[in-house]
Structure formats: structure tokens, C-alpha cells
Amino acid sequence: MVKEIERAGIPVVHICTVVPISLTVGANRIVPAIAIPHPLGNPALDPVEEKKVRRKLVVKALKALETEVEGQTVFED
Amino acid sequence: MNKIRIVHYINQFFAGIGGEEKADVRAESREGVVGPGAALNAQFKGEAEIVATIICGDSYFNENVEEAKTEILEMIKKYNPDLFIAGPAFNAGRYGVACGTICKEVKDTLNIPVVTAMYIENPGADMYKKELYIVETGNSAAGMKTAAPALAKFALKLAKGEEIGAPSVEGYIPRGIRKNIFREERGSKRAVDMLINKLKGEEFVTEYAMPYFDNVAPNSAIKDISKAKVALVTSGGIVPKGNPDHIESSSASKYGKYDIAGYNDLTVETHETAHGGYDPVYANDDSDRVLPVDVLRDLEKEGVIGELHRYFYTTTGNGTSVGNSKGFAAKFAKELVTDGVDAVILTST
């Protein structure tokens, strides 16, 4: 799906837990997520802290969208 | 000759420990066969024996690759095997990646032959087919009846050091290796024959399949995200409560498009996941953990982004064929363009 969206001309960032799969699939902008059943959350935290963590990931994804990339790029911390 | 000693790797599901709710169990080793190992052992007809089975949860492996590799390697060493087998993983993505990863590690570190088995569209196949023998299987565990004998036969050959023939003969996924062989007819004659068959519309088999590259070049970055319309897409199966369009829990044949104009937050009352490939407890409890509507709504209010697109697109990514996924996205990407969406955040579990 990532590739088809990119092909349509829209920049796309893939937030995903298993980065090697995303690389194989062909995503160009990749932001590693937290865990498979909760990529953008952490149920061990209280809701306020958890939302902060989620916001951090989303902001990182937005930054990735604002960054020119040549090829596949993983946006680590 | 002594019996060939084999260590077998399987996931928590095939070990009978449990499904997704148990996918985070750590690696353990057990003497002898567990689950599908019995079918393999039966095929060995006394020539080889599974001396131990390593079991590891798919999520644990993929979320802790380095630790898992080290732990499992230690377990394998203790049994001093002649051969290592992982799977079959069929079309289970994380299981396939785990099988490929651990096989490569064993091959590189312990220097013994390794083999795994999976469906050709399993992401693990694409990642490891060049380095490993991967016996091709059907896309679901229903194919165990044919997969187990094929894997066992191949494993025996490999352990005995017999020559491994072409992929089409031996049943493994092509690794892109070319071998010099003698043919009756010279190349020019074979090429012309092929061309004539092609012109006549008859069948011909190429001797050198062109590699299939399908990378899409990245689009230019967004200049000013505070003016951009951002859309959410997910393969994590988030749907309105009750899954109104009945999106399948795996091998999805459709996607959903849902209005989030009225939502500042996804809650246990409003949304859930239809995905059958991960433990749904956390996503059902708060779907923002997969589809971050709450945070994007805040960022929209604060002017960090221009606008959150009023529709999100969703499907379940597990076992869904590449063909279907491509078809879904090709269709909705057009709508996104028409709707003036500038950027997409796609989330996957």
C-alpha cells in the first residue's frame, strides 16, 4: 500500500514495528514503532504519558515527511 | 551411518502454546519433537531425528531480534545438530521473518546446513531467499500435508551433502544463482527456438529470468507541513465498532473508508480492530494506539499540521496478498489525490 500511495505522487511515511518488512515492501520514509500489538502506544504507561509517546512518534513522522530522501530511509532517534 | 541430528524451530502457535495473545513468549527448548516436527520425523524414516525443538513467540523474536538470536543460538549449540530446520511458516509474516533470520544466524555462526519453508509472498522469503534454501509451500497451514514431506525430503538431501538441483526441480524458492551446465543444443539455436515459440504464441521457458524491481522513488518532501492536508491509512485493521463492512480478520478481500470528522479521540466505544494477526486487546481498548487520531487532532488544532483528512483508509494486513493490497491502495490513492491530500501516514502493526 505504501508503494502505491507513493506511486500516486503523495509522500508517505510508514510507521511500523518490524522495520525489515517495511524495507522489503519498499517504503521510502520509515519510522520505527513501539510494538506489534500497539505500534503507537504503550499500555504499561498511564494515559497521559502514553499520549506523549504517541505524539513524539507522530511528530517524528511529520518531520520525516518534511525531509528530502534519496532512497529508503529509516528515521531512528 | 549415525542418525542425522536435527534441531527444529517453530513459533508459539505451532507449539500449541497459543495464538497472538502468546506471541510475546520468550524462546525455550524442549527435547524431541513438538507440533509439526512429528510430521517431519515420520518422513525421515529413521535416517534423521529431531533431537530438540526451539519454540519462540513471533512478536518476542521480531521485537528483540538480537537477544532472541543469542538465546536461541545457545540452545541450539547444546544439541550439537548436523542440520537446522525452521518452520514451515506458510504465509505468517513475522514467523517467516523469524525463520529466515534464525536460519541465517545458525548457518553463519554454527556453519551447519539450514533450511526453512514458507509461502513465496511471505516477507521472510524476499528477505532471505538469496542466502538460504527456502522450500516453497502453500499460503496456509492447511498445506502442511504437502509441505512437511517436501521440507523433510529436501532437508535429508541437504544433510547428506547431496547435490541440490535447480529450484524448479527441488521445490525451493529461486536464489538467483546461475550454474554452468552442458546442453545438447547451442545457445543461439535455443534462443531462436524460444523466439519462434513466442511468435507462435506457444509456451517457452526463459533461461534467464529478468529480476523484477518495483521500487518507487520517494516523492519530494512537504515544504510546510503546517499547511498540509494529512491522511491516515493503516494495515492494522482499525474499524468503527462492530466492523460494519465485515473486513476479514486475515487475507482481506476489501478495505474500508471511514469518516473521522466528528472524532477527537478513538475509544473503546467507537472503534476496534478487525485484524486477526496480533493480540487485539490493546487496539480494542484504545485504537489510537494503531491509528493516532487523537494526537493528529491536537496537532491540527495547534496548527502544526494544516488539516487531518476526514476519511481514513484501513484493511487487515495479515495474510492479505500482495495483489489485493496493491489493488486497494491503487484505488484509494486516486481518491486521496482527488481529495487534495498532501501527505499520508501509514501505520502497520
Topology:
The complex is a heterodimer of chains A (77) and B (349).
Chain A: H1 2-7, E1 12-16, H2 19-25, E2 29-32, H3 47-65, E3 73-74
Parallel strand pairs in A: 1-2, 2-3
Chain B: E1 4-11, E2 28-31, H1 37-44, E3 48-56, H2 58-63, H3 65-79, E4 83-86, H4 93-110, E5 114-118, H5 123-128, E6 133-136, H6 144-159, H7 167-170, H8 187-199, E7 229-234, E8 238-240, E9 256-259, E10 271-273, H9 281-285, H10 293-301, E11 307-308, E12 311-314, H11 322-338, E13 343-348
Parallel strand pairs in B: 1-3, 1-4, 4-5, 5-6, 7-11, 7-12, 7-13
Antiparallel strand pairs in B: 2-3, 8-10, 9-12
Which descriptors would you attach to this protein?
heterodimer, A: 77 residues, alpha/beta, three-stranded parallel β-sheet, 42% helix, 14% strand, globular, B: alpha/beta, 2 domains, 13 strands
Question: What does this 3D model show about the protein?
Answer:
- The complex is a heterodimer of chains A (77) and B (349).
- Helix content of chain A is 42%, strand content 14%.
- Chain A is α/β, with parallel strands linked by helices.
- Chain A has a three-stranded parallel β-sheet, sandwiched between helices.
- Chain B is of the alpha/beta class and 349 residues long.
- In chain B, 34% of the residues lie in helices and 18% in strands.
- Chain B contains eleven helices and 13 strands.
- In chain B, the strands form three sheets. In chain B, strands 2-3-1-4-5-6 form a six-stranded mixed β-sheet, sandwiched between helices. In chain B, strands 7, 9, 11, 12 and 13 form a five-stranded mixed β-sheet that branches.
- In chain B, helix 4 links the parallel strand 4 (83-86) and strand 5.
- In chain B, helix 3 packs across helix 4 (93-110).
- The radius of gyration of chain B is 24 Å and the shape is globular.
- At the A-B interface, helix 1, strand 1, helix 2 and helix 3 of A face helix 2, helix 4, helix 5, helix 9 and helix 10 of B.
